Write the structure tokens for this entry.
Amino acid sequence: MEIIDSHVHLSKFGHEGKSFAEVRDALLQDMKSSGVAHAVIFPDSEPTGVVAGLDECLELAEGNPALSVAGTVFVPAVGPDDLVKLRSLAATGKIVGLKLYPGFEVFYPIEERCHPLYEMCVEHSVPVVFHSGESLQLTERERLNHPYEIAKVAKRFPELKIVIAHFSQPHIFACRDVVLANPNVHVDISGLAHPEVIEACGLGQIRRVLRQVASCRPDKVTFGTDWPLCDVKLHIDLVISLPIPAADKQSIIGGNARRLFRLK
Ligand SMILES: [Zn+2]
């Protein structure tokens, strides 16, 4: 079964003291041992030295057919130059999506300043991935990336492919409703199998919403882990444990991300 991890970071979390090149090597090593064929790297929009930024990720993934990179931008300071850069990266296939971080950054996805970014995504047929749910343990920030806020973008830009990251945990029920109600909204399961998330949301509830979405729209659920924060095997086991057809499990673990991000 092909495994594609559509949500990883080159992060020094757990890799303290290493360079980003060494973190990339650790990622490739972990991919090999868990059978992950391809990973999509999400850069940090505000590089702090802990998680690699866009330019570093592009450089470290260059020439490696097992790695793809999504673009990103610090929305509170987004300007015309960012758009020129992202458009050129998308046009040349150097980025396979756009990751935005409402909640970590203070903005609502529906704000006007984001619209040119969405138009760029539509133009180049790449999805926008929204960080959603838990944000730096600041619960009041979660209003910014709540699934209902993301639904506003889905309705305003029906051609835009949207991914809600982390199943918006802890807002998993609202996330389910938005994914099922909006044809252009997909969801990734990164972080859902993390023991702390399971404790907060309850394994029964997580399996229930996942099964509900996966039974109705198995094509809209993508596999991701938030590596290095979360374990690959726990996430695979979560998908495998669902009472859905084997072919749908296969699509969730591999095919959906390949199609959505148009991976080669
Ligand atoms: Zn992440």
Remarks:
- The chain has one domain: 3-260.
- The chain has a mean pLDDT of 96.
- The radius of gyration is 17 Å.
- The longest strand covers residues 3-8.
